[in-house]
Each structure stands twice: as structure tokens, then as C-alpha cells.
Amino acid sequence: MQIDTEHLHHWMRAIRNSNDPMRTMDAFWRGQILSKEWLIDNLDELVHASVSVDIHGGWVGTLASMLFQSNVPCHFIRSVDIDPECEEIACNMNQIELEQGKFRAITADMCDIRSDADVVINTSCEHITQDQYDMWLSGMPINSIIVLQSNNYKIPEHVRIATTLEEFKQQSHLKLLFAGELDLPLYKRWMLIGTPDV
């Protein structure tokens, strides 16, 4: 996957124009980017036709922008985040696709969102409790591809980590197409791809 210079320009503009540029730059730590590349590489193996994508916990829109620049054929991406600071940054980050009508960012609690997207991504599983996760999953279409990431990084804002990949599988209630782990400097990232096990 390559990041083209026009998209890079919008990334830098989004960082510079955000209310807290240093906080926005947290989305570009090496572990964050490697985790997104890993997700895209594995999703690319499973998606062979044009898809709509919901990203729940979409943060500042980096994953959406990387997906648009990948081989995964996305005709529309909606980025959902509970932090109201993220919406404008995500729109700036994805300015090209926003103008083309292919991107939208909204401020909402993922647990209140129902989706009809072909692919639903939640890379913030460690930020919601098991009850919240179960409620979230109940709102997902049974035929959608669900992509989940979590980790074993113990910090106060991580309310539901998984200490092992097996534990993450048990938490997630998916019929699995992929399960894996990625070693990063501070933690291990877990990823599952599948469909709701209903």
C-alpha cells in the first residue's frame, strides 16, 4: 500500500488545523499505522467486490484514508466516533473522498449505531465493556464482514482488554474467517475477521 502525496497533504493539513495537533498525531504512532496496514492487508484477501464500510471508533479518519488508498474496493466509508473533536479532523483527513461523496464522518456512540454496511470495522474493542460490545454486535447485519481489533495493553481507558487471542475470540462471538496477533513494542494487537455468530 502506498500513500500518495495529495492524500499526505490532507493528512498534514488535518493535523495542523486540529485543536490539538499533538493529540491528533497520536493516530500516527508506529503501532497505530502498522495495525491499520495489517488490517487492510488481511481484509484485501477477503473482499473481491466493491463494498460499503462502517468504521466504529474511527478516531481521526486515518484508517478510512488508508483504505481508500489500498486495493480494498471501497465505494463508501462512514467513520463513527464518540469524540466530537474527531469529526472535523476526519473530514479534513478524507477531504478528497468527502468531496466525491464517498466519505462521511459522524459523532455518535457506536453502541447506538445500527449498520447496513458490507464491512463493519471496530478497532476500539478494548474501549467498551462486554455488555456494550454485545449490544453493538446485535446491531450488525448477519451477512456483513466484521473486523475487530483489541490488545493486551493495560491502561485506565482500556476497560476490556484480552490477555490472549483465545480470550478475544471468546469475547467476540464471531464465525471466524481470520484470527491473528501482531507483536508491537508496547503490546500485542489481536485481530478477528468473521461474521456474527447468531
Short structural description:
This protein has 198 residues and is an alpha/beta fold. The protein has 8 helices and 7 strands.
Helix-strand blueprint:
Layout: H1 5-17, H2 21-24, H3 30-44, E1 51-56, H4 62-68, E2 74-81, H5 84-93, H6 95-99, E3 103-107, E4 119-122, H7 130-138, E5 145-151, H8 165-172, E6 174-183, E7 188-196
Parallel strand pairs: 1-2, 1-4, 2-3, 4-5
Antiparallel strand pairs: 5-7, 6-7
Helix pairs in contact: 1-5
Can you put this structure into words, describing what you see?
- This protein has a single domain (5-196), classed as Vaccinia Virus protein VP39 (Rossmann fold, 3-Layer(aba) Sandwich), CATH 3.40.50.
- It has 8 helices and 7 strands; from the N terminus they run αααβαβααββαβαββ.
- It has helices spanning 5-17, 21-24, 30-44, 62-68, 84-93, 95-99, 130-138, 165-172; strands spanning 51-56, 74-81, 103-107, 119-122, 145-151, 174-183, 188-196.
- Strands 3-2-1-4-5-7-6 form a 7-stranded mixed beta sheet, sandwiched between helices.
- Helix 1 (5-17) runs antiparallel to helix 5.
- The model has no long low-confidence stretch (mean pLDDT 94).
